[in-house]
Specification:
The protein is mainly alpha-helical. The chain has helices at 2-6, 12-37, 41-50, 52-61, 65-83, 91-110, 116-125, 133-152, 154-162, 164-169, 174-196, 201-215, 219-244, 248-266, 272-286.
Length: 288
Amino acid sequence: MIEFFTEPWTHVFMQRAFLVVLMSGIVCGVIGTHVALRGMAFIGDAVAHSVFPGIAIAFVLKTSLVLGGIVAGLITALSVAVFSQNRRLKEDTVIGVFFAAAFGLGIVVMSTAPGYGGSLESFLFGSVLGIGNADVITVAIAGAVLLLITGALHKEFVTVGLDRETARSVGLPIFWLDLAMYAMVTVAIVISIQAVGNILVLALLITPAACARLLTDRIGVMMVMAPVIGAVSGLTGLYLSYAFNLAAGGLIVLTATAVFIACWVFAPRHGLLSRRTSRTAAVVSANP
């Protein structure tokens, strides 16, 4: 048992993988809490697709994939925020248009690069074991900046998430706060893509926050629980992938999903068993 926990740390590539997964889990847990509160899961999926052209262009030009993804995601986020101001178009419609266009552009750009098939597979499903020192530093810096911004704008984000009309009536800049949230989701997704891949990254953003939502009614507690669940799920999935020689990204997501199912069933107040017990008690009290 001791060897199971210590052996992976003897490999430098695993040390880097653990650090990136840990940081990604924490950052996605914090940002994902605001995403869950605002019902922005579709936006998270759209951003995950919209970073593709930036990563593809960066791959072709042999520059930083993280920087390329962030630039592409921010451009798409800005486009969505601007075009959504037209009241004839709903936000999810605009998102659908731009994320499909971005993903299509990414495929076209990637198809021009040598080794297209292997590179696309790595992007879609993650390559956490191939992370370099520069990637670890980039994720650490970007994650720290995200957490600082989230802390500075926490009250504003919560107000907008709970009641947009109230937020507008008290004079909060809704457009700029929306744009800031899109940008933060973009960065969180880009720094996590290497860990779980483009297809699965939404789970790292949403699932820990959904678990925390089932476990508590307090937003402050959610902000703590979600990153803890994300980090623990990531580390556990990575350990299992090393022990059984299976895909790291898939096991990370499956671990987080297992935690979600456990919360859905056993959560103290909002779990399936708790609700059934409450209904039974209510029936008994009504029919003594």
